[in-house]
Design a protein that fits this description.
The protein is mainly alpha-helical and 272 residues long. The protein has 2 domains: 64 residues; 189 residues, Up-down Bundle (f41 fragment of flagellin, N-terminal domain), CATH 1.20.1330. Helices cover 68% and strands 4% of the residues. The protein contains 5 helices and 4 strands, in the order H-H-H-E-E-E-E-H-H. A two-stranded antiparallel sheet has the order 1-2. Helix 1 packs antiparallel against helix 5, helix 2 packs antiparallel against helix 3 and helix 2 packs antiparallel against helix 4. The two termini are 19 Å apart.
């Protein structure tokens, strides 16, 4: 039917052209942002899932920061402990030398001066073994706890180890100024050395727990990031093909609409 009031062909052509224009807008958004789901408007369910996963990834970054701080704190404590262990070895050698009855008073005094200097250095190391204000080896120190999961419900604790003089069985007055005291001090220093090495092993185990968890956290975060990409990232090759097809459809739609709009003009020929 020819009508000047109703043009069904034009309405259909316009409907499909409008849809093509909307599809082109979607493709152009994907190309410009790199996302096939850039907002909740694109796909509410997928966007919500991606946002939850992004929250988990952000949480795991905080976990990694916490674990790294823990590792650094334990590393400082271990470095201090190793230095203390080395000092105790030297102190044992001094005590053993002073225990020798054949040395004179001057030599024993010199050995005692060295011994007490090493003793005082132990406490100085303990007092300065801090990282970010946290000292894991001083007397009365707190245990250190790091985050282990993204919602903060799991934590990993490394127990503090007292490496102060009193904590390893020595005192601020320990000396080898006399032969009998030096003889007894050999065993005391050996006991302190054994204790320090045992505590170092405990700190090492704690550091390993942090390192293992940090490695797992990194892998988990990478997996989640990859999963987010699978959900929301646009496939650029696919989008390029879509754009080419839509541009062709757009041109055809314009032509179809032009043809449909010219149909009513045919009515004029009936009245000539």
């Amino acid at each position: 039917m020819l009508s000047v009031n109703t043009n069904n062909g034009a309405m259909i052509a316009l409907q499909y052209l409008t849809k093509t224009q909307g599809d082109m807008s979607t493709v152009q958004s994907a190309i410009s942002t790199g996302y096939k789901v850039a907002s909740a408007k694109d796909d509410g369910a997928t966007y919500a899932i991606a946002q939850n996963m992004r929250g988990a990834v952000a949480g795991y970054q905080s976990v990694a920061d916490s674990l790294n701080r823990g590792i650094s704190t334990v590393d400082v404590a271990m470095s201090a402990g190793q230095s203390i262990s080395d000092l105790l070895i030297q102190m044992k050698a001094k005590a053993l030398a002073s225990a020798d009855k054949s040395i004179d008073t001057a030599s024993r005094t010199a050995l005692n001066n060295d011994f007490t200097a090493l003793r005082d250095q132990i406490q100085a190391i303990v007092d300065n073994a801090s990282f970010n204000g946290f000292n894991l080896i001083k007397s009365g120190a707190d245990d250190i706890t790091a985050l282990a999961n993204s919602d903060g419900t799991k934590r990993i604790t490394v127990v503090h180890q007292d490496l102060s003089l009193t904590g390893i069985g020595l005192s601020a007055t320990s000396n080898i100024s006399v032969q009998s005291g030096a003889t007894a001090m050999v065993a005391t220093v050996q006991s302190a050395l054994t204790d320090v090495n045992k505590k170092l092993a405990s700190l090492s185990a704690g550091a390993k727990k942090y390192s293992i968890q940090l490695d797992f956290t990194s892998k988990l975060s990478n997996t989640l990031t990859s999963g987010i990409g699978n959900l929301v990232d646009a496939n650029m090759a696919e989008e390029s093909a879509k754009l080419t097809a839509l541009q062709t459809k757009q041109q055809l739609g314009v032509q179809a609409l032009s043809i449909a709009n010219s149909a009513p003009q045919a009515v004029l020929s009936l009245f000539q």
